[in-house]
Amino acid sequence: MKKTYIIAISLLLVSCNDIELIPATSSTIIEKIKSYKGEKAVLLNIWALWCVPCVEEFPMLVEFQKNNTNLEVVFVSADFQDEFENVKSFLVKQGLKSNSYIKNEKDDIFINGINQQWNGSLPFIIIFSKNKGIVVDSWEGKELKSRFELAIDIALSS
Fold this sequence. Notes:
Blueprint: H1 2-16, E1 21-24, H2 26-34, E2 41-47, H3 52-67, E3 71-77, H4 84-93, E4 100-103, H5 107-114, E5 124-128, E6 135-140, H6 145-157
Parallel strand pairs: 1-4, 2-3, 3-4
Antiparallel strand pairs: 2-5, 5-6
């Protein structure tokens, strides 16, 4: 009987960490972001495993997601599909509880579909307002926590 309980608890723990990594195009991501208009502000984070600044700021973004129910952080990996399992493993290690995306489109089409002013550098952040769903801030490269907090505050109040 004890063995059954141990197996059941082990399966439950594994399933709690089983997030879904969804292959997505730029239009899929934009539609997902639009679905939050009027409900939540959205922080779109496009990152990759090979991008040191992306990996460095990832835990901070996970904390933003955990600590604010009015903010949705949409994580999109720009890694190639052959990195699928490594990306998923990284997300689980980061304690991510929500589903995440992995780019499934040619780079130039994906970049232009997300934001035509984006030159493709990573990390890339876009923050959308809660009520209007418009871009309140965007940037390429690593930024201080204070920049994120200011942009999120603006997004939550607009």
